[in-house]
Design brief:
12 strands; Spore Coat Polysaccharide Biosynthesis Protein SpsA, Chain A
């Protein structure tokens, strides 16, 4: 096994926000390491946040010697392309792309997408059924129809790609590459805990859920 994870710490979306006294980035890296599926985690962040990101990762048990923190770009897509080039210098079989704001993602979900790629799929992503009604509108914001939500899914991370797809990942980015791969992508069942924590309200809900799960202890 030799797998690498790419983690873009977009601090504008709160990767260093606190959850139960730790940065979301810390929680996210812990989940990757606890999965037992990731040998190297590459974190990209802005210059002014590199030291904070380094500290957030360094405190994770088992992280020593298994992570690198590099300068990313203001644009998320460009940061991912840079991360793919960085990891290209490290032999790997599977590339995992994860979002630090999905800090409560279970380690089992990381294992599920990696296992799917190891089993022969070029890529694997977790998805959840769409539960909201989705309306189609025209340029004038007038409703023109209703989309059948039975065929809609919301996409989560981590996404996993076979390492042979590095050039395509660098060129197209993960979301567009998934579209190009189409039916070849293996869909695995997502998890409610893998939701993004990108607002104060979402963080408060996560805090409450963790407090309940631990009986209020920290």
């Amino acid at each position: 096994m030799n797998h690498a994870a790419l983690l873009v710490a977009d601090t504008s979306q709160g990767a260093l926000a606190s959850l139960r006294g730790e940065a979301l980035l810390t929680h996210a890296v812990r989940g990757l390491i606890c999965s037992g599926c990731v040998d190297l985690t590459i974190v990209l962040d802005s210059d002014r946040r590199l030291a904070e990101s380094e500290s957030a990762v360094r405190v994770v048990p088992g992280a020593a010697g298994r992570y690198r923190v590099f300068r990313g770009c203001a644009d998320r897509s460009e940061s991912l392309r840079r991360a793919v080039h960085v990891v290209g210098r490290t032999p790997s079989e599977v590339l995992v792309i994860h979002d630090a704001t999905r800090a409560r993602t279970p380690a089992s979900l990381v294992e599920a997408v990696v296992t799917a790629v190891q089993g022969g799929a070029p890529a694997a992503v977790p998805v959840l059924p769409m539960t909201d009604t989705v309306k189609l509108v025209d340029p004038g914001a007038r409703i023109t129809g209703t989309r059948d939500r039975a065929r809609l899914r919301t996409l989560q991370t981590p996404m996993a790609f076979h390492a042979d797809l590095r050039p395509e990942l660098a060129e197209h980015g993960p979301e567009r590459l998934l579209d190009r791969l189409g039916a070849q992508v293996r869909l695995v069942e997502g998890h409610p805990d893998a939701a993004k924590l990108a607002s104060e309200f979402e963080l408060a809900l996560a805090e409450a859920a963790l407090a309940e799960a631990t009986g209020g202890s920290r």
